[in-house]
Amino acid sequence: MADTWDNVTIPEFNSLLQMDPYLKQYEKDFRRRYGLFEKRLFLLEEAEGGFDQFTRSYRTFGVNRMADNRLVLREWAPAAEALFLTGDFNGWDNFSHPYEKKEFGKWELCLPPKHDNSPAIEHNTKLKVVVHTKKGERLYRISPWAKYAIQSEKQVIYDWVHWDPPQPYLHIHPRPKKPQSLRIYESHVGIASPDPKVASYTNFTTNVLPRIKDLGYNCIQLMAVMEHAYYASFGYQVTSFFAASSRYGTPEELKQLIDTAHSLDIVVLLDVVHSHASQNTEDGLNSFDGSDSCFFHSPPRGEHALWGSRLFNYSSWEVLRFLLSNLRWWMEEYRFDGFRFDGVTSMMYHHHGIGSMFSGDYSEYFGLQVDEDSLVYLMTANHVLHTLYPDCITIAEDVSGMPAVCRSVAEGGLGFDYRLAMAIPDKWIQSLVGDKSLAFWLMDKEMYTNMSSLIPMTPVIDRGIQLHKMIRLLTHALGGEGYLNFMGNEFGHPEWLDFPRKGNNESYHYARRQYNLLDTDHLRYRQLYDFDRDMNRTEDKYGWLAAPPAFVSAKHEGDKVIVFERGNVLFLLNFHPTRSQTNYRVAVASPGKYTIKLDSDEVQYGGHGRLDHNTEFFTEPQPFNERENSMLVYIPCRTALILGNDDTESCY
Known about the structure:
Elements: H1 2-6, H2 13-19, H3 27-48, H4 51-54, E1 62-65, E2 71-76, E3 80-87, E4 100-101, E5 106-111, E6 126-133, E7 138-141, E8 149-150, E9 159-161, E10 182-188, H5 201-215, E11 219-223, E12 226-227, E13 240-244, H6 251-263, E14 267-272, E15 303-304, E16 309-310, H7 317-332, E17 338-341, H8 344-348, H9 372-388, E18 393-396, E19 418-419, H10 423-428, H11 438-443, H12 459-478, E20 482-486, H13 525-542, E21 551-556, E22 561-566, E23 569-574, E24 581-588, E25 593-599, E26 617-618, E27 629-635, E28 639-645
Parallel strand pairs: 10-11, 10-20, 11-14, 14-17, 17-18, 18-19
Antiparallel strand pairs: 1-2, 2-5, 3-6, 4-5, 6-7, 6-9, 8-9, 12-13, 15-16, 21-22, 22-23, 23-28, 24-27, 25-26, 25-28
């Protein structure tokens, strides 16, 4: 078998090796992965008329209305003995509408229109698939392809609702161009309001989108959109993969949200969960056809020991159809601009990352512990998305550091555009759901009493406000090729995040974002907000996120000073609590006159206003810290500065 992979050619593998020669010893692994990917692509072309058709299977599975108002229903339930459709349309008769068995475990049902030529199933009415198992059980299921599901009052189980509005929302605005610098506002629609309740898509469109635009973010990452029965799962226990969560409103209202974002030149990414699925049976995918497998591996491989959820069988043809079509559905129907793939670490390894520290030794990323079915799925997904939508953005949530995750498939990589650098927030705080916010770690209970600008800052508030700004700027400028902010952090959101659950008496008190704090002008939250806005706007001008990695010329432990250059600007950060640096020599590549472009110590940002913004800093041809030029600067304690060379152009 090894000889088979030796004949595989990875078109641009040499580019990968030039970047990282140490990967040469794992060339056979890369060839095998690429060979499996090529084989899958070939089979798609041969059997389904190419991946364009294959990934539009939402047009043939589930419920679809034809031009003559006939309804065609199709399901994949390989272990079922018989399938029936029941619902409001037939008075909940369990036997009147049987599906016809087709080959490869598929079932089909055609419903002619009514006498008045309207569809047999009306919009916004309830349905169920009745599955008869070989054991003689009768199960009531939601179609895996259901486009809408609701939780009726006082009901635990979600109901499948046929969604086919007579006047669907029509997108008006084109997709924005893919940003060169990605500044992401990570959002959860349900908590996007100060009120202790589940907020709506419409609230987000009306009240949150204008703030995001004002702040200078050019991308929104929407969490918890795919339908999930358990709200406190934060959206990561998905029950209906094709349904936009109804707890926030209708599919049409989500489409309007995305269209409005596009009108503001903001791209929208979906937090897509293809790493696992809820173990719910009555309103989830689990045991859809009565078996312990169907879309998943049989236990134990098909179960996640820590998450209590089901794991997909990525080698299955019909699972591939389901997941790839799911990506296409969100791109086509809702006009999302890309995806953040959740749980990629769990997908890539048979051990799912459980108990693995990932030291960085390359042997950890190759060999039998790697789930190559998952890797091939991710390669295929990225290939499909980037071929059909060249501006599509894909982000991998991977904490393992797997090499080549963000290299193109043609190089032998997985094809992602970005990887979420989750170790960075964990370096500041263990940023978990239920943990205190960064601002609350810094200032804690004093945020309840001492955030007014009408009173002098206490030492705790002063320290917290200055460090909060510095931490954000350092992460923004040095953290990678994109910046992600979780909603509320831009203004130092107090307290913590916790969803209603039994343990907190189903309280919404911490499952909300207190944007109202910004509307009280004398509170210092507005100062932190203004700094975030101007930090993003400065990046927009100089483009450091799209620039090559920074050159760090100083990281002085004693002085608590960090100095680096990126995107033709100079970053100066003095973390010392008491010592301002006067006549402090810093290295710089480009000679010339430098002026202040951003100053965290400005009074409008809650600083002390210790710098004169008319000051000009001139370089000297005096080599310092591996740079040809240097200059003397003044950096107040607990201050971050950006200096720009007025003699050079910005990156853009």
